[in-house]
Amino acid sequence: MKEQNYLDSLVGVFGHPVAENPGVVIQEAAFKDMGLPWRYLTIDVEPDDLGKAIDGLKAFKMRGINCTLPHKIKVLEYLDELSESAAFIGAVNTIVNTDGRLSGENTDGKGFMESLAENEVNPKDKRIVILGAGGAARAISVELSLAGASSITIINRPEDADIGTSLMAVLKDIANESVYIAWDHTYKVPQDTNILINATPIGLYPDVDAIPNIDVDSIRADMFVQDVIPNPAVTPFLRAAQAKGARWNTGTGMLINQAAINIEMWTGMKPDKAVMLKAFEEAIS
Question: Could you tell me the pTM of the whole model?
Answer without folding.
Answer: 0.86
